TrEMBL record:
Protein name stated in the entry: Sulfhydryl oxidase
Statement: the UniProt record of this protein carries the keyword Oxidoreductase: yes
Species of provenance: Schizopora paradoxa
Position of the signal peptide: none
Region of interest (Disordered), ranges: 1-30
Pfam families assigned to the protein according to its UniProt record, in alphabetical order: Evr1_Alr (PF04777)
Length: 139
């Protein structure tokens, strides 16, 4: 029986992971977790209503406030909690306000890590997280 048929892995099994990621089947590292979380948060903000109801605002705030308590990276969780306290999101402004707020918080992390900053205009955030580029390559 082959290694693949038996479910075991060998050094001949080809990995689809990027070189900067753990091998396939391993728990996510802090970078993978961060990318996935930012993708989820930015996409959620992009689809947040323009005029959210009080319940939608409360639930979004609950999601954001849960991260500093539940996020698996304690350093990241603590930092986000500090940033939320210093700059609370204005959810009455709907998706535009939330998208900008998240982009600014993400840029604070990017700056701390020496990564490039993202343009936080609604045109840029919508293109990246909701509509895709105007050239249609994501359609």
């Amino acid at each position: 029986m082959s290694a693949l048929a038996s479910g075991s892995s060998t050094s001949t099994t080809k990995s689809t992971a990027r070189p900067d990621e753990p091998p396939e089947g391993c728990p996510p590292d802090v970078e993978q977790l961060g990318r996935a979380t930012w993708t989820f948060l930015h996409t959620t903000a992009a689809y947040f209503p323009e005029n959210p109801t009080p319940i939608q605002r409360t639930r979004m705030l609950g999601l954001l406030m849960a991260l500093p308590v539940l996020y698996p990276c304690s350093y990241c969780a603590q930092h986000l909690g500090e940033r939320i306290n210093a700059h609370p999101p204005d959810l009455r402004g709907g998706r535009v306000s939330l998208s900008r707020w998240l982009c600014e918080r993400h840029n604070e992390v990017n700056e701390r890590l020496g990564k490039p900053l993202f343009n936080c205009s609604i045109k840029s955030t919508d293109e990246r997280w909701k509509d895709g580029p105007s050239d249609g390559r994501c359609d």
